[in-house]
Amino acid sequence: MDGLTRTNELVFVLAATNLPWELDAAMLRRLEKRILVPLPEPEARAAMFEELLPSQPDEEKLPYDLLVERTEGFSGSDIRLLCKEAAMQPLRRIMTLLEDTKEVVPEDELPTVGPIRPEDIETALKNTRPSAHLHAHRYDKFNADYGSQILQ
Fold it and tell me: Which residue positions does the secretion signal occupy (predicted)?
């Protein structure tokens, strides 16, 4: 970038934003390549779910295929939120159990947090909505107006 350093060395700047249309003209001029990263494809979503919600050997296998199928249009951030929601379900079960108990449970008798169940996935899918589609037309317009065409 102009004025960033006083040497003759090149400077490489990598930046990311979810709202590229909010960038001012001066910033756009300095970002030579503007590349729209699309929403994750099914293979990428499957890898994200396997990383964020790994199955344990002694537990029921999570329905990754269902997750991939039902998350078309989800961004990486949406998928992370969905996984957090699924992971919270076992804790919510314990909290409900403890709230229903009238007496104080000794610490050594507290129930342990169980595994994520397929029904937890269903609950998370019902409670989590994709967000990227709200601006899909704006991303397409920005990419048409300012995006760099990458040849593969």
Answer: none
